[in-house]
Design goal:
Layout (H helix, E strand, L loop, with lengths): L2 H19 L1 H25 L5 H22 L1 H32 L2 H4 L5 H24 L2 H19 L1 H9 L7 H40 L4 H11 L5 H6 L1 H6 L6 H37 L1
Helix pairs in contact: 2-3, 2-7, 2-9, 4-6, 9-10, 9-13
């Protein structure tokens, strides 16, 4: 390896180390950029009505705060109540799962038990996981000072980027060679359009999934429909893995109901995902392409 290549490799390793050590700050900055980009759409809309940018920024931030406060005031009390019920119901559901496991071990021939030996430890593992989750939740609440400080930093950066984004944008563009700066500016414009479209589509999908889940769980009579619906909507943010994980809590809660409800819950969630894949995603992609086409004009 040549000396120049060695220096380049060491610089790359050091850069990765610095990025890893500052990953939390980078995530906060990235989240602030995302939120500022989304809110900038509302600010631009208000500016079309000849409202000054400073006032438009204040209105946008106040609107966001009102939405968040309204959400917490209306949803969170019921959510906390259902979470407490969830903690009371889950041990009974796990106990029923354990009894089903014992019944299967008595019915299934011995030569097949080796293939399902993991069932013996399934309920105990779920119980331990539930206990750790509850304990970690309360410890997280009790030591939430760092979270509050990070949230304040996030809000401050968002307002700074939203109030006057030009200096930060120009400063970032100046990091590149002069011959490439126009190209970087064009890339940033396309990134803003794509990011805005993605955020809108993602939140729309999350809202639809949460609403459909709530209605379906109410019809099936599954306990704690609000908690499970919000969980399904939030996990929709995680591609592929999230929708699969969202079916586990309502399926476990269905253990305390009729046995057929477990299959009904799984089939219902599978149907929701088909609606998302075949209806929601194509509509969102189509609207995003139309938005991108308008921005090019």
């Amino acid at each position: 390896m040549r000396f120049g290549q060695l220096i380049g490799f060491l610089a790359f390793v050091i850069s990765l180390y610095i990025l890893w050590q500052t990953r939390q700050i980078i995530l906060v900055v990235f989240a602030s950029i995302v939120l500022a980009t989304v809110l900038n759409q509302l600010v631009s809309l208000l500016q079309r009505f000849r409202i000054k940018r400073g006032i438009a920024v204040a209105i946008s931030v106040i609107f966001l705060l009102v939405v968040l406060v309204g959400f917490f005031a209306l949803i969170v009390p019921r959510l906390v109540d259902q979470l407490q019920q969830f903690g009371n119901i889950m041990p009974m559901a796990l106990e029923r799962l354990r009894s089903w496991n014992n019944w299967l071990q008595n019915v299934i021939p011995d030569q097949f038990l080796e293939n399902i030996r993991g069932l013996k430890y399934l309920t105990q593992g779920l119980q331990d996981w539930l206990n750790r989750l509850i304990n970690n939740f309360f410890s997280l609440v009790s030591s939430s000072l760092s979270i509050i400080l990070g949230l304040l930093l996030f809000v401050a950066l968002t307002i700074m980027l939203l109030a006057n984004p030009s200096p930060y944008r120009q400063g970032f563009i100046m990091l590149f060679p002069a011959f490439y700066r126009r190209r970087v500016d064009d890339i940033l414009n396309k990134c803003a359009v794509s990011l805005t479209g993605w955020i809108k589509g993602t939140f729309l999908t999350m809202l639809v999934i949460a609403t459909l889940s709530y209605i379906g769980l109410l019809i099936l009579g599954i306990p704690l429909p609000l908690v499970n619906a919000i969980l399904a909507g939030l996990l929709e943010f995680i591609p592929n893995v999230g929708p699969t994980l969202s079916v586990i809590p309502p399926a476990l809660l269905a253990l305390n109901e009729e046995p057929w409800k477990i299959a009904a819950v799984i089939a219902f969630y599978f149907g929701i995902q088909q609606i998302e894949s075949l209806v929601l995603v194509p509509l969102v992609m189509k609207s995003h392409q139309q938005l991108a086409g308008k921005s090019k004009r």
